[in-house]
């Protein structure tokens, strides 16, 4: 009889060891915090929601400390000259929006260092818009350190307004192909300077 009880106990222990542990509710947000695309996807929720409220641009995303400083300086210059420096929304690469077919995906991740996330969507047309986010790992989470937009209708606007933007504002020059080929970006990557 003891042998039978011993075999049942060993079988139960083996079964318990093979069963994956239940995930706590706290583990899901922790996993999302380590996925760069999970940081970018929520930025588009308000664009997909009719009559959504929008915070100021400086509050729309978890900006890196460096980019946050640049955005604050840009905002201050804008107030001083009483003219907008940022005349479009970099998150959608346009002023007006009617988004559909949103897809946000990681393109490259260097764990705990930097990542590249691409958002693809249609904005009021069938033409696909691509917005590329450069993220850095800062203060134990992913933060947006740059936004780059692709070529398209915005490139016409960028040619006519190229001279208006300083190094601390939007750089709207055609970047070399090694910099992603974007027609505008919030911050010129150091390798492109």
Largest sheet data: 5 strands, antiparallel
Order of helices and strands: HHHHEEEEHE
Main-sheet strand order equals 1-2-3-4-5
Q: Which descriptor suits the 3D outline?
A: globular
Could you characterize what this model shows?
With 193 residues, this protein is of the alpha+beta class. The chain has a domain at 26-147: Nuclear Transport Factor 2, Chain: A (Roll). The protein has helices spanning 2-18, 27-33, 36-40, 65-81, 153-161, and strands at residues 99-110, 114-123, 128-138, 141-149, 184-185. It has a five-stranded antiparallel beta sheet. A hairpin with a 3-residue loop joins β1 (99-110) and β2. The longest helix has 17 residues, at 2-18. The termini are far apart. 23% of the residues are buried. The model is unreliable at 151-182 (pLDDT under 50).
SSE inventory with pairings:
Blueprint: H1 2-18, H2 27-33, H3 36-40, H4 65-81, E1 99-110, E2 114-123, E3 128-138, E4 141-149, H5 153-161, E5 184-185
Antiparallel strand pairs: 1-2, 2-3, 3-4, 4-5
Spell out the key features of this protein.
single chain, 5-stranded antiparallel sheet, 193 residues, 5 strands, Nuclear Transport Factor 2, Chain: A, 28% helix, alpha+beta
In a nutshell, what does this entry contain?
The protein is an alpha+beta fold. It has a domain at 26-147: Nuclear Transport Factor 2, Chain: A.
């Amino acid at each position: 009889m003891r042998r039978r009880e011993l075999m049942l106990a060993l079988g139960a222990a083996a079964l318990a060891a093979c069963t994956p542990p239940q995930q706590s509710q706290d583990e899901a947000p922790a996993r999302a915090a380590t996925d760069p695309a999970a940081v970018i996807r929520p930025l588009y929720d308000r664009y997909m929601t009719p009559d959504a409220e929008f915070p100021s641009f400086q509050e729309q995303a978890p900006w890196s400390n460096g980019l946050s400083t640049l955005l604050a300086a840009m905002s201050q210059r804008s107030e001083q000259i009483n003219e907008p420096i940022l005349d479009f929304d970099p998150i959608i690469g346009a002023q007006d929006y009617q988004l559909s077919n949103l897809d946000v995906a990681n393109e490259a991740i260097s764990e705990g260092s930097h990542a590249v996330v691409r958002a693809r969507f249609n904005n009021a047309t069938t033409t696909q818009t691509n917005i590329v986010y450069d993220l850095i790992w800062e203060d134990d989470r992913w933060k947006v350190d740059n936004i780059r937009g692709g070529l398209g209708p915005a490139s016409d606007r960028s040619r006519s307004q190229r001279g208006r933007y300083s190094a601390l504002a939007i750089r709207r020059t055609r970047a070399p192909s090694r910099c992603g080929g974007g027609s505008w970006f919030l911050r010129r990557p150091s390798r492109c300077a």
